[in-house]
């Protein structure tokens, strides 16, 4: 190639580099733009470049597309990830500390206090329950399940709870919530309003703890408020995973995401936590629930009549019991409670699942299915009778994600989902339609409805017109 042609190419190259798009936020010269367009053409459009040139050019302008060849394997292996190495080291150290006994992680004074009190707590076998949940299609992995078992033991020692159970997981757009429920005998904080139920009763009978990482601390959620539950029934909200996030909804929610999460956990628990029929009963003296002295696990566990709700239904007021207003007489109180009982009745405790109203378009609100080997086997001596290794799986259609599994007298509840109820009302405002363009001006057209039809109009008198013209000439 001659020096003249080389100089010409260099001059053209410099001119293309000087041509820039000054109106865009991305200052890009014409030479770089054409280079990206030609790279795209050679890689993906070698045969239809002429037809696709304008489209490819527009795409590169809009996306600022950069064509780069992928790195070779030896280049990737030579990359140093210092931050990742540090993160892995910290993660391994936290796992090691979690696998140790929880008492070793506490300060010495707290360790001695717990040892002296000889606190006892009840924690289910998470690993055994995880084996049952796998039959329902739910699994967190063996490593995560083992860490969860250790984390529950640590939480029991730190929180002072007498009973803990892994409740499940709520999916979030940024982080997921791992949730534990339990019974906490520690006195609650002062109630915020008169209508709030105190801890240990009603919707605050159970305390919830959440975390997004089993290696971090568990956070105790605040007690449920009636107004939070009432508004939660009116909205649908996808959680973000941040407890302090604001909730943008219509109607406005009077709290943060942690309050909405607490309200939804209460609703799901009271609607989907089920037990075998006859396991619990109400004590006549204390009017509190207790385990039945004579209880036999139902034989037909597949039937919905063999299962009942564990908790009372939540009323429209955001409580499980009606509350009369303050400063009224006894007669007015009885009359007021009577009207509430008619408009918002308290359902019977331990109601069976077949009594639940069906979902719209369906025949039931629950699905029951037996999976696994349904063949009964004789037990080895000294045990008598037969045993079956099949697993009964019950799914809630009203709260998708709520599952109960049962096998040989053992059962467990779990929820894994977005915390949304199927069929709940929600306000979704529609966007206004696009503003239409101005209409094109139409050309002038003949009158569509003239007073006299064109064919009926009289013909002009040409002779008279000529005479008038001749008379004017004579006058002149």
From TrEMBL:
One GO biological-process annotation of the entry reads: cilium movement involved in cell motility
One Pfam entry name? Radial_spoke
Where does the record place the region Disordered? Answer: 425-476
What keywords are annotated for this sequence in UniProt? Cell projection, Cilium, Cytoplasm, Cytoskeleton
Which GO CC terms are listed, alphabetically?
Answer: radial spoke
Q: Would you tell me the protein name for this molecule?
A: Uncharacterized protein
- Tell me which InterPro entries the record gives: Radial_spoke (IPR006802)
Q: Its principal location? A: cytoplasm
Task: Provide the protein's localization.
Answer: Cytoplasm, Cytoskeleton, Cilium axoneme
Any transmembrane segments, and where? none
């Amino acid at each position: 190639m001659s020096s003249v042609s080389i100089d010409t190419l260099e001059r053209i190259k410099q001119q293309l580099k000087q041509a820039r798009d000054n109106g865009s936020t991305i200052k890009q010269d014409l030479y770089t733009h054409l280079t990206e367009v030609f790279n795209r053409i050679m890689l993906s459009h070698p045969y239809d470049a002429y037809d696709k040139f304008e489209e490819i050019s527009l795409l590169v302008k809009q996306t600022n597309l950069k064509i780069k060849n992928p790195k070779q394997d030896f280049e990737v292996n030579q990359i140093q990830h210092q931050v990742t190495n540090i993160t892995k080291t910290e993660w391994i150290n936290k796992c090691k500390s979690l696998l140790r006994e929880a008492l070793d992680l506490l300060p010495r004074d707290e360790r001695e206090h717990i040892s002296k009190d000889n606190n006892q707590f009840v924690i289910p076998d998470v690993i055994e329950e995880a084996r049952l949940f796998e039959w329902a299609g739910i699994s967190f992995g063996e490593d995560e399940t083992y860490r969860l078992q250790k984390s529950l033991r640590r939480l029991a020692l730190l929180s002072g709870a007498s009973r803990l159970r892994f409740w499940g997981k709520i999916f979030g757009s940024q982080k997921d919530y791992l949730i534990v429920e339990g019974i906490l005998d520690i006195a609650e904080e002062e109630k915020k309003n008169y209508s709030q139920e105190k801890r240990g009763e009603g919707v605050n009978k159970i305390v919830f703890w959440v975390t997004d990482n089993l290696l971090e601390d568990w956070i105790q959620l605040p007690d449920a408020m009636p107004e939070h539950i009432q508004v939660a029934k009116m909205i649908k909200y996808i959680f973000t995973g941040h407890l302090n996030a604001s909730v943008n909804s219509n109607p406005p929610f009077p709290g943060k995401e942690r309050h909405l999460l607490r309200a939804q956990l209460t609703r799901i628990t009271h609607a989907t936590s089920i037990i075998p029929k006859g396991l619990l009963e109400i004590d006549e003296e204390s009017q509190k629930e207790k385990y039945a002295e004579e209880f036999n696990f139902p034989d037909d566990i597949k039937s919905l009549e063999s299962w009942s709700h564990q908790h009372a239904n939540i009323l429209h007021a955001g409580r499980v019991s009606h509350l009369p207003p303050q400063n009224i007489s006894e007669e007015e109180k009885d009359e007021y409670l009577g009207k509430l009982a008619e408009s918002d009745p308290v359902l019977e405790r331990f109601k069976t699942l077949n009594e639940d109203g069906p979902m719209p378009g369906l025949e039931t609100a629950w699905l029951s299915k037996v999976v696994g080997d349904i063949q009964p086997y004789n037990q080895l001596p000294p045990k008598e009778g037969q045993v079956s290794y099949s697993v009964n799986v019950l799914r809630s259609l009203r709260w998708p994600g709520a599952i109960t599994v049962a096998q040989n007298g053992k059962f467990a509840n779990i929820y894994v989902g977005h915390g949304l109820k199927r069929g709940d009302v929600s306000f979704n405002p529609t966007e206004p339609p696009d503003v239409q363009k101005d209409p094109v001006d139409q050309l002038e057209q003949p009158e569509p409805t003239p007073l006299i039809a064109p064919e009926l109009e009289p013909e002009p008198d040409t002779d008279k017109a000529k005479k008038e013209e001749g008379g004017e000439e004579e006058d002149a």
